[in-house]
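Quick check before the chapter quiz. The format below is the same one you will see on the exam, so make sure you can read both the input and the output lines.
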Amino acid sequence: MTLKNEFALGIVDADKRQPSYVEACAVIARTEHITLLKHGKDNHYFLRISPAMDTFILSCVKEANIQLEEYGLTYDLKSFTRITKEVESKNDTRFKKLFKQLQHTKEMIALGNVLAYLKSHKYDAEEEKLKELFMCKMKSQCIFSPNFQLSIPFSISNF
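Here is the expected output.
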């Protein structure tokens, strides 16, 4: 199956080994933990999370001043990573509640902006608009819809 003329969006950790396809992408915008990449002239995008999704989530937790103990989770990276790998987080109520609280952090807002924009502009996304949305710090200044539900792992099947 080829996606040559199709829209595609992937979310990958910034592992030591990146697929060659990702390495061929150009950086559009970057925050502390998220890099938005585009492959050539195709409508193929990647969001690279650095260094990995679990560290990104813990950073957002810290920014939001959330007490993970209230969610039955821990700040210890090794333990947190083990928990995230053991559970199906999209169905875990602890994570659902946590992610709802994280939607107001800078990088989650940027992530939500980009996902919402790409969802509605699969074939006509403008790089300058993506940069602008990615760097937006305030929800009130952005297109992030209050009805846009952000969950991790991200479900992009409806894109």
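If your answer matched, good. Residues 144-159 have pLDDT under 50 and may be disordered.
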